[in-house]
Design a protein that fits this description.
With 141 residues, this protein is an alpha/beta fold. The chain is 48% helix and 22% strand. It has 5 helices and 4 strands, in the order E-H-E-H-E-E-H-H-H. Strand 1 (3-9), helix 1 (18-31) and strand 2 form a beta-alpha-beta unit. Helix 3 crosses helix 4 (99-114). Its cofactor is Zn(2+). Single strand-specific metallo-endoribonuclease involved in late-stage 70S ribosome quality control and in maturation of the 3' terminus of the 16S rRNA.
Length: 141
């Protein structure tokens, strides 16, 4: 059965509107022509995410999100998305948005990576931001 699951690693964090968030993310994946098999969101601390960044990506920097694509079949989503709640809170203040808005942007950003969107070049980043904005506007909660 397709599933989006939420976990906490080393922190205590309770996502609000879990059912609505699951439906919104699932609808996003389906709208892009993909099937959802398994998607795990792991909420963690800056330090935890830094260790993952160092260990798996050889980057020695803090980040808000790391996405691992575990899919074995094209068009079927299987992945793990790690999100630093500390970074979400900091970025929400920096960009003058609510923590929920910033969290949802980062959550859909990770899903878009699994759907094949990139953000390394300016053109790719612009395309991804437009997709984020589109799907954020689709939320009904």
């Amino acid at each position: 059965m397709p599933a989006i699951t939420f976990f906490e690693e080393g922190i205590s964090y309770k996502l609000k509107n879990k059912t609505a968030v699951r439906k919104w993310l699932t609808d996003t994946i389906v709208a892009e022509g993909f099937k959802l098999n398994e998607l795990n969101y792991i909420f963690c601390s800056d330090e935890y995410l830094l260790q993952i960044n160092q260990q798996y990506l050889d980057h020695d920097t803090y980040t808000d999100i790391i996405t691992f694509d575990n899919s074995e079949e094209e068009g079927i989503i299987v992945g793990d998305i790690f999100i630093s709640i500390e970074r979400i809170k900091e970025n929400a203040a920096k960009f003058s948005v609510t923590e929920a808005q910033e969290l949802h942007r980062v959550m859909v950003h990770g899903a878009l990576h699994l759907l094949g969107y990139k953000d390394k070049s300016a053109a790719d980043k612009k395309k991804m931001t437009l997709k984020e904005d589109h799907y954020l506007a689709e939320r009904s909660f």
